[in-house]
Amino acid sequence: MPIRRTYWAIGLVFFMLLVISHRRSNYTNDDDNSFPPERSQQHQKPPPGGGSEDSRKKPPPGPPVLEKPYIRDPAVLDHSSNNPSTTSFKPLTVPNTSNHYDSLIIIPTSWTQLQNRVWVRETLFGIKNNLEPCARYDGNVIYKFYIYGQSTWLKQGIYTAQYMQAQVRSLHGEFMEFDDWHFTNRTVKSRHAVWGEALNWAVNTFVPQEKITVDKVILFDSTSIVNVQKLESLAREATAGTAGLLMTWGETPTNPFAALVSFPAATQILKNRVSIEKDGTFMDLITAASIYYNSQIVETVKVLQGEAPLWQGDIDQVPTSAAVIGLVHQLEDWNPLAQRIAVQPISPCAVDPLRNKSIAVLTSSYIYADMCMAEAALPSADNKRIYAEKHGYYFVARAAEFAQEEFRHRQRVWGKIGAIQKTLPHYEWLLWMDMDAIVANLDQDVREIIRKAEALNVNKQNEVSIIVSRPLKDVMLNAGVMLIKNTDWSRKFLNEVQRRKTWYNQRPSYEQGAIWEVMQDPLWTSGVYLFDRDVHTMNTFPSFYEQGDFIVHFAPAGCPAVSVIQALGNIRSGESIVGVGVEPPKPKAA
């Protein structure tokens, strides 16, 4: 009996080894389980547009195999000169004013991958938040997220309506808080399928629209950790002569995690796109272009393909000299892996030494669960951003301070005070505007209002640190539009407002009632200037609006989204907004 048990045990061991061996030999690295594997070999319908057939091209290869043998480029993983010794962030102090950039970095990413974009901003560009946004891209690189829509979530049971609504609300907030994205609402069933569209948008739309020039375009997913300096160094070493340059890094030649394309090569690839994608073997334009140009007798685009590790879970197995690591999905892995390959953030904009003397237009980017302002939020934020850019100011939108109020058991509108307190130390003045307030007169410089308040102020005990207004018929100020100066007095004032607990959930005024209460306290009156019973200087309700007024505040009892959208449309078309958002008079009782 013991001998029989021994035979059974030996047989079981051999069986397990056989299963493990079979699983390894059939292992695939498709990161999108919703994408049917058989689709990868189906022919695609060629995209519309022109493309010239290269007369020097050999007959197109049948199987998806490179005609030139794939040889691992040792420089990609083993070149010691491409291994920076520090990961410290060095802010750029000298601005680039040439409108020419070394690299245009395009990061294709699903709209649901919000956290990935947070990682990329911080790790690759040193952007930890949006409190000090780039007023202009005056670094040596410029980047954009190419965000695509995805409808396949409808087929996944985990994605409930409530979950997706939360995702959409967060996406709206991101769009308002950052100006580093382009959105295309198309379904993408493979992460590589969108690379060609992203390259086309970058070369044929973004570059001419921004009137810039670039040496090269770098493409990678938001799940890839990339050492951009290593990629650029390898590109400099890869002398292509008169030919363009196409470099890719991936686990295999047909599964790239990142690509670098010289701008001449990018234009040539897009020009010949129909020919490159003719056989439809690959949904990925970059891989198809690599095979296409490898098959040319005369080298017009030099193709180099380097190996990059797929993240498997063991950090010690990742070479420190790697330039790219692919498919990193967990937050806990991101920073250790970035340090492992010595990623150094590249600042997309220079430090502004005069920022603390500037003004920031501050607003909310928080979308409430009722989705009332979802459609109007982004146009409203754009209106404020355009105003800020026109006058050389900064634009900041914040949602986190509103979201956290749920856990403080206060009305979320109290997030306004927290957002002001967090942003104020970075600027001289803040112009707070509620989401339903828009700039109607883009020519009005807010500094003129500040100077007017300072001149009219008769209480000289303290300098004017807060400027607000009280509408004609209201019993207290309206806190939808406020000016706050970065002074020790105003910071203490805001702290005092936060202490007025009786207003935390007291309808209908909440934080507005707390501000008014503190203003009435003799200890706090000296630093506030009130435009009393003033409906035109800085905060105008629709019923009082006259042509030329600065800010219109659509704050009715219902949802103001329709009125905000209509007013913004009129402003863009040069039409008057008089009467927009004015509620019809109630009929008199019989």
UniProtKB/TrEMBL annotation:
It holds the Pfam family Glyco_transf_34. Residues 1-23 form the signal peptide. One of its GO terms (cellular component) is Golgi membrane. Gene3D superfamilies: Spore Coat Polysaccharide Biosynthesis Protein SpsA, Chain A. InterPro entries: Glyco_trans_34, Nucleotide-diphossugar_trans. The keyword tRNA-binding does not apply. Residues 29-69 are annotated as: Disordered. GO terms for biological process: protein N-linked glycosylation. One of its GO terms (molecular function) is glycosyltransferase activity. Keywords: Glycosyltransferase, Signal, Transferase. The keyword Nucleotide-binding does not apply. Belongs to the glycosyltransferase 34 family. This is Glycosyltransferase family 34 protein.
